[in-house]
Structure formats: structure tokens, C-alpha cells
Amino acid sequence: MFDILLSSLGQVFTLSHLLYMMLGVIVGLVVGIIPGLGGIAGMSLLLPFLYGMDPSVALGMLMGLVAVIPTGDTFASVLLGIPGSSASQATVIDGFSLAKRGQAARALSSAFLSSMAGGLIGAAVLTGFILIAQPLVLAFSSSELFMLTLLGLSMVAVLSGRDLFKGLAACGLGLLVGGMGMAPATGEFRLNFGLDYLYDGLPLVVVGLGIFALPEIIELLVQRGTIANEPCRLGQGWRQGFRDVRRERGLVARCAGFGSLIGTIPGLAGSVVDWMTYGHAVQSAKDKGEFGQGDIRGVIAPESANNACACGAMVPTLLFGVPGSGSAAVFLGGLLLLGLQPGISMIETHLDLTYTIIWSLALANIVGAGLCLGLAGPVASLTRVRFTILAPLITVLILFAAYQATRATGDLVALAVVGAIGVLFKKANWSRPAFLIGFVLAPGAETYFYQAVQFQGSAAFARPGVLIIGALILAVLFIPAFKALWVKRRQSKTSGVTASPETAKAAEQSPMIGAVDVLLLAGLLGLAAFAWSDVAGLSMLGSVFPMLAIAIMALGCLAEAARYALRRPQWQHQACREELVWLTGFCALIAVILGLGFISTAALFCLVFLLGIARLKLWTAAGMAIGVVAFLVGMAHFLTLTYPSGLLDPWFFS
Amino acid sequence: MRPLTSQQTLNTRLKHAARLGLLCAGLSTLMLPATANAADTDVPDTIKWTIPFGVGGGTDVWARFFAPWFSESLAGEPTIMIDNVPGGGSINGANLFAVRAKSDGSQWLGTSASTQYPAMLGDPRVRYDYADWKPILATPTGGVVYASPEMGQDADSALQALLKQPVKLAAQSPTGVELPVLIALDMLDVDVDPVFGMRSRGEGRLAFERGEANIDFQTTSAYLSNVQPLVDDGKAIPLFSLGVLNDEGQIVRDPTFPDLPTFNEVYKQTKGEAPSGNAYEAYRKFFASGYALQKLVMVPVDTPEALTEAYRQAARDFIKTDKFKEESAAQLGPYTPIIGDTVSAHLEDAMSIKDETRQWLITWLADKFDVHLATR
Fold first, then answer.
1. pLDDT at residue B5, as a whole number
2. Given this model, what pLDDT does residue A84 score?
3. pLDDT of amino acid A514
4. Which of A193, A371, A478, B206 is the most buried (most CB within 10 A)?
5. Is the confidence at residue A502, as pLDDT, over 70?
6. How far apart (Å, rounded) are the C-alpha atoms in residues A396 and B344?
7. What is the pLDDT of residue A499?
8. What angle do CA B84, B57, B124 make, to 5 degrees?
9. Is A623 close to B19, i.e. CB distance below 8 A?
10. Domain B46-140+293-355, CATH among 3.50.80.10, 3.40.50.720, 3.40.190.150, 3.30.565.10
């Protein structure tokens, strides 16, 4: 085995291998940086060259691509608050908050360093683990997978903190939205309201963009400043980022190890990992106050996990031909195109290729993170540009990203609808991560629960693996409460009267309520009634999960309402007239896009916005608008993308 | 004053960026390919091949394997551009193709079992009709049903055991590629209890390997690479193959598995007569459209006959070469693509499902699995 390890290392350092891997890395970075594209677009760019290539060189190229996507998408998450791909949703929360505090360079450099470390740890784990992984992968049956999705869902409790009921309601809504589309048990279609678009459910990219990115854009437009509202010198941020990662090396190692193991379990997409590790970072921190407002650990934890997870995902892909994540699925296609059938032969007869893959993975992680570190400083200065200049470009970018999800008009409409929910959630401080966790985990929770019961009956929940994960869930839910209680008791014992003033204040504080809260409570309860009537006609197996989601949502809302009724709430003024104006503008923009065509509208919109609102000089605005057109036309040309064509586009751009 | 100066430098940078943008725009309009303007029967310069599945999936890989072969064998070596339009389990892409495709030979469609089945079942989302298209080429596949060794040490004892106890099969959806297998097992009086919601046949196999399912089914290439090792280790017992369709449209033994009986043989052996009736009719049609003609290259029916023939001839030319035979063994398994009129005949037969058979199937799905299909 050792000689194979070394000979494949020699293979990795040949010139042709290095060159093709660099090509893969560069393509991976480009598609990673542009939100909404991700591994699939990158693969479609490389696949045409693949056929007929030498397998080991081609694998290096593919690995270069797969390895750096979770690195590159950090730019969009940190700088623009756009979840670049499913692997970087948790990064948005603290990464973007740091950018708003003028610490984008710090967030980026620690993100890239922890990505690199995570990737290397993942590759190291993979080297030994792939040889013994087969029994472990087989040990995870549907019941353990269900428990893991529950563990993911329990993070809602961690993330919503004091607003537990709002978090529950948000999570219930996420579960309900995630349950749209085909029922896994019966093939029935649920909650599609007769719309073809909803038969497949909503795409993750659209939901992620709507719930996170759009509300941030609108808020920044209302504030009229730059993304960074505290000045900061860039060079300092760099060094600070390095120091942060060094200080948190324990966290990096834990998250990377955890990420690479979760990655090996087929069927649990990488999107669970970043929430779990984020939750872990919150729980293991002594001072939790900064999380959500810009704590660097909230960036380090998911970023070290997601690259490691990409490594781990290679295990089921290579050994079983069952991809562990979206980009692994595309990588699998590449393997097949090279004439390699995944299976046990990958460690019995093709072990050299497998190690070439692992070495390339490690090397690509180093190169990718290095390139990103170089870019971090200059790109971070974007956060100091007036936001009204950036806004039209970012708006076009998220519309572009959303439309690539399924290339249907529905993508844009869904973006606006989810975006409106996001704006309300943000305004009234309802947990948006809780919604997203519910949405992401809904299909897994339902499918695995049903399969576990069908396959194993009641024995499903007496398996040792299930009990272990169950204990973990209880620990996540209750240990913090006990800890707080214990600390409080000890404090009151030792110091008598001087209980920590902050906790006392927090306990006394009466809940805040505002117009948006009332609107959301009423709206969600109304939605619950409506959705219940929609699914009530389905078969038992098809309707039980959405009903459960509705129940969680309704109970969360009712409990929140009861809380207001019991403790007299403080009225909070939640003005959102300006937000609504921008939101209406956004909807109007979508309408124009559908009427005139995407490229023409994007050009017009940028021009008008930059002249009228950002008040740039005519030729600067024109140049930027033309740049946008060039970007869109270029993307369409090289990646064979399409846009809504409308009336004008066929005239100008075909 | 520092913030102001940095703002100014940023603005100048933006101006530079804008200028670069102008330049790029100019260049990209120059570099866009000139639109083709050729006579009817000439092979177009660019062929857009719509694949209604995602990048990296089975049908995508299949198309990307064929694209260079077609391109090299056609006059003028046209560029074949693969356009992935995933969604609705291939219904969306096929619907779009049905509405938009031009019939000048510049647009192809790649379909698979999951495109054929909804059309046969009368799924309300389907807005395409196979009668509007004609086939260039089809690639067949076979498949093998196998059981866990708990059921018995050899195929005969396992088949006996299957009749005595309910067995679990991990499947994708009631109307997915497992449909003929479910019908076949039911015809043999096996009390099969399918667990739906698998995202691929690979996940189904994983459930079998984990011991959750005690019977499973894989198509030939997955069987050879992933199940054969299990069989060799005594962890799986092959029961029967689905067989292949010969030129006369009869189901015969799969040349890949010459020692394995087909479903028809097993049925005849256990029941003493050849399979017949609505159930067998449904089995045969869904086997033909989902396996014997699993993946198809289609063009709109109005495509000029000369051009269609040119495409078919190109396919006939390249499938004869040794290089193709060698490479296709890895990609398509040990089956030869079928071309032209043979495909048309088989396809017409497979897709024309009688109302009576369809009605039987709908009732059967409802009775057996409590699955109520929405149909037109």
C-alpha cells in the first residue's frame, strides 16, 4: 500500500497532471465565486474535454474542480451575504456580519485558512479511512440517517436562543416548504397548487438567495452606506485572520474531523454539516453573545468542515457509486465518462487512481486556498464601495443565480416570494437559519423516517447507533440549560445577591412585539389552515409529514402568541415602508425581465439605477451596464446557459 | 480625509473596470459564432442535443459518450452541444423540446425510461407525444433481480422462499424504472413490499447491502461492477434476468447472462404456462420501453428524411468500428445500439399501450401499494 501511496504522489507531481489540476482549480474557483453555479456548471465546462483523456490526469482535473468549490463560494457568502452554494450557508451568518463590521479581510483570510486546513485534514483522514470505510458506510441504515437529520434539526434550538418559539415556527415553515413536491412514500404531489413549477419542490439555491441575500440587499439600500459600516485597515485584517485560525486550531480539527466523517455517509448532503458544526461552535464557546453579530468562530467552524466534507463525500462515491453530495454526483458522472465504474474495485484494482484522487484533493485545497488568500485583500475592498453602486450588479447576479436553478420563470417568482418572507423575518428578528435548516432537512427527515419504519418496523429505534445519536440530541438540547442553571446556582451561592446583572436583565426583559410579528403570526396561522386543507385529501403516508410540519409551525406561533398574552409585551416600532418599496421595485424588475428579456432588462436596470439612484457619471454607468451584458452573454456562451428571452433579447443578443 | 481619497481611488478603479467591461463586450460580440445558414439536407454546423437530465447523470454521461462519435462520423463534423434541461424527472425538458424544437435537424433529444414511462401512464404533466418524434438510435440494457442469501442458497430455493414470506425491495417511486420488476414479482406471486423514496438504484443497492432490503434489482452495468463481487462472495443470489428483445420483438436470454433464466422462463417453470394477460402485457410494454429501448436519440418527426438517414447512417458506420465496440463495452455494457427502423417498430409497439392494460395497471397500483396515479 505504501508504495502505491508514493507512486501516486509521483504521478500527482508530473507536469501534465499539475497543469490540468490547475485548470480544474481555476475553473472551480470561477464557478465557485459566481453564486448559483457551483460544481455542476464547472463540470459541464470540463466534461467535453474529459472523454478520451488519460484517467489519472483527468481525475486530477476533476478533483481540482471539486476541491475548491467550497473554498471559492466563501467570497459571495462573506462579502455579499449570498450563500454561494449549499456548503456555505452557515458562513453567511457571521461572515457577512463581520464584513458589515469592516472585517471582511479577516473573515475571508480565516475562512480560507480553515478551508485549507479542513481539506488537508479531510484528505489525511480519507487516506486511511477509505480502506476500512465499507463496513462503516453500511452500518448507517435509514434509521441512523433519520436520527442524524434530527440532530441537524435540533440545531434550531441552539440557533434560536431566547426566541425558541419563533425559531420553531420558522423551522416548521421550512419543513413545510421543504415538503412540497413529490411524497417519497407514495409518489403523490403535495402543495403544488396545480403549478408545474412546484412539482419538484423549491430549489435550495432560490430559497437560500431569497431568505438571506435579498433581505440584506434591501437593508443595505435602506441604510444607504457601504457594506462595511466601520472603517478598518485591510492589512490588519489579514494578520488577525491568521491569528484567529491559530488560536482556534482545536475547533478547526474537530470540525474537519466531524465533516469528513459525515461526508462519508451517503444521502446526507453537505448542507447538514455546516449547520451542525456551526451549532457546535456556538455551544462550545464560553461567550456566545457575538454569534450572529460577527463571531469569527462562526466562520471558521463551517468552513473547515465543508472542505473536509467534500473529501469524505468521495468515500461513498468511489466505493458504492452513491454520491454523498451534489458535486460528488457530478464527479461520479466524470468517472463513468472515463470508463471507470465505481465500486470495490476502486480499492482492489484501482487503488493507485484512488490515491491519485486523494493527493490531488489535498494539493488542490492548498493551491485553491492560496489563490483565494491572494484575492481576499483586493476583493474585500468591495465592502467599502458605496452600496448603491454595487446593488444593481448584485441584484442582477442573484437573479442570474436563481434562474440557473431550474431555468424556469418560477425561479424568479419564488425568489421574490421567499425574499419577502426573508425581509419580514429579518425585520421582526425571526430566525432565518431555522427556516433554512427546516427546508434543507425536510426531505431527509421524511424519507428516512418512512424508510426506517418500513424496513425495520419498531426495531428501527432500538439500534445502538440510533441510541447514541439520540443521546447526542438530548445533550444538544439540555446540556446548555443545565449548565446555565448550574452556573446560576453556584453564582448565587458564592456571591449571594450579586447574580450576574446581564442574565437578570435578560430574564426581566419583557418580549418585544411589533406589527411585523403580528403579521407573521397571523399569516403563518392562516397558511397552516390553508396547507392543512390542501394535504388533508392525500393518503396517510403522503400527508403525515406536511401535517407534522404544519403542527410544529402552528404550535410555535400559538406558543409565541401565548407568551405575549401572558407577559405584557413591549410594543416595538417595526417600520418597513421603505423595505416594501424596494421589494415592490424588485417584483417590478422581475416583471420587466419576463416581458423584455433578462439581458436587456439587466442592462437597462443597471443604467437607470446607477444614473438615477447611485448618481454616477453617464459613461461610468454605461460602462458598467455593458460589463454586465458582457458577463451574461459570455456566461451563456461558455456554459450554454439560457435566460428568460422576452421581447427584446432575441433582437439584440442572438 | 483618508476615507475620501480611498473612495476616489475606488471610483477610478471602477472606471477602469468599466472600460475593461466595454472592451470585453466588444470582443465577445466579435467572437460569437456566425449563425449557420445551410440548405435543408446539409448536416447543420451545430446540433443542439437536449438532455432532460442533470449534468453527470446516467443519460448525460451516455450522451456525452455518443456526441464525439456522431460528430466525427457526420459530414462536416458538426459541433454537438449538449444542453441539460433537468426537472420533473425529465418531463420538463421533454415538454420544452416538444414545444420549441425546430425540425431542421439541428435539434436532438435524448430520452430515457423516465421520459417514456410518464407518457405511457398518461401523467398529466406530459405535454409531449412520442408520435411527434422519430428515433435515430436506441441503446438497450438488461437487468438482473437478485436476492439475499438468507432466502436460500441457490436460485431455486430462494425463489421458493420468496413465495412464503413478504420481501422488501428498495425502489425509487411506484412509476420508476422498477415498475416492470414489481409487476414481474407480483406475477410470480411474490409478496413484495416495496419501500419507495430511493434517489437512485445505487441507494437501493446500498439498502440491500445493509441488509434492509432482501431482494434487489440492478441494470446490467451496475450489476457487473457492483453486484457481481457480492455474488462471488456469496452475499447475493441472482434469480433471473429481464432478458433482451430480439429483432422479432420476442424476449430472449440476455447474452450477458447466458446462464441466467429470463423472467419468462421462470414464470413458465413455476406456473406451467407462458405468461399472458393484462399483467404480462404491462410488463412487456414497460420492459420494452424502459430496457430494450432504454435510451433514445430522437428528432422531431418533420426533420427531413435525408438528414435523418444521414444521422442513422453515421451511427451504423461508427458502431461497426472496433474502437467503438471496445469503448462502448465500458459505457453501455455488452449491448449493441439499435438503429433506425427496427427502433421505430419496437418503439411504436412499446408506447402504444391499450387503455385496458393501462386501466389494469392503475387499479393494480392502487390495490397493491395504495398508490393513486393522477392521469389525464
1. 44
2. 66
3. 86
4. B206
5. no
6. 46
7. 45
8. 65
9. yes
10. 3.40.190.150
> Rounded to whole angstroms, what are the CA distances from A546 to A293, A525, B197?
33, 14, 16
State how many domains chain A has.
2
Rounded Cα–Cα distance for residues A484 and B311 (Å): 74
- Span A153-171, pLDDT tens digits: 888 888 877 788 999 999 9
Side chain identity at A224, as an amino acid letter?
R
pLDDT at B288: 94
Tell me which residues of chain B, numbers 47 to 76, contact chain A at a CB-CB cutoff of 8 Å: 54-58, 60-61, 64-65, 67-68
Q: How far apart are CA B344 and CA B129, in angstroms?
A: 14
3-state secondary structure string across A108-142:
HHHHHHHHHHHHHHHHHHHHHHHHHHHHHHHHCCH
Q: Strand (E) positions, B42-100?
A: 46-51, 79-84
Rounded to whole angstroms, the Cα distance separating B356 from A343 reads 43
Of A140, A186, A337, the CB nearest to B371: A186
Query: Do the beta carbons of residue A43 and residue B55 sit within 8 Å?
Result: yes
Q: Do A341 and B226 touch (CB under 8 A)?
A: yes
CA–CA min distance B83, chain A (Å): 7
Rounded Cα distance, B221 and B205, in Å? 13
Q: Which three cell numbers stand for residue A86?
A: 449549499
**Angstrom distances, CA of residue A574 to CA of A220, A313, B42:** 16, 44, 66
Q: Is B31 exposed, middle or buried (0-12, 13-18, 19+ CB in 10 A)?
A: exposed
pLDDT band of residue B275 (cuts 50, 70, 90) is very high
Helix and strand element counts for chain A (H, E): 30, 4
3-state secondary structure B217-281: EEEHHHHHHHHHHHHHCCCCEEEEECCEECCCCCEECCCCCCCCCEHHHHHHHHHCCCCCHHHHH
Residues of B in contact with A393 (CB under 8 A): none
Round the CA-based radius of gyration of chain A to a whole number and report it: 25
Residue from A620, A626, A618, A624 nearest A653 by CA: A626
Domain boundaries for CATH 3.40.190.10 within chain B:
143-287
Strands A512-513 and A570-571: parallel
Instruction: Provide the 10 A C-beta neighbour count for residue B307.
Output: 19
Residue whose C-alpha cell reads 492589512 in the numeric block: A235
Residue A78 has pLDDT above 70, yes or no: yes
Residue A364 lies in a domain: yes
Average pLDDT of chain B to the nearest whole number: 87
Give the distance, in angstroms, between the CA of residue A458 and the centroid of all CA atoms in the same chain: 34
Q: Which of B66, B97, B219, B225 to mutate to test the interface with A (most CBs of A within 10 A)?
A: B225
Helix (H, G, I), strand (E, B) or coil at A303: helix
Look at residue A570 and give its three-state secondary structure.
strand
Quick one: pLDDT at residue A269?
A: 60
What pLDDT does residue A233 have?
A: 58
Residue A110: which of A275, A303, A281, A289 has the closest Cα?
A: A303
pLDDT for B15 beyond 90: no
**Distance from the A204 Cα atom to the nearest Cα atom in chain B, whole angstroms:** 14
Minimal CA separation from A535 to chain B, in Å:
14
Report pLDDT digits (tens) over A314-326: 888 888 888 877 7
**For residue A82, what are the domain limits?**
2-494+517-571
pLDDT value at B335 more than 60: yes
The CATH H-level superfamily of B143-287 is Periplasmic binding protein-like II (3.40.190.10)
Residue whose C-alpha is closest to residue A214's, from A597, A516, A579 = A579
Sheet holding B237-241, edge to edge: B192-195, B167-170, B215-219, B143-147, B237-241
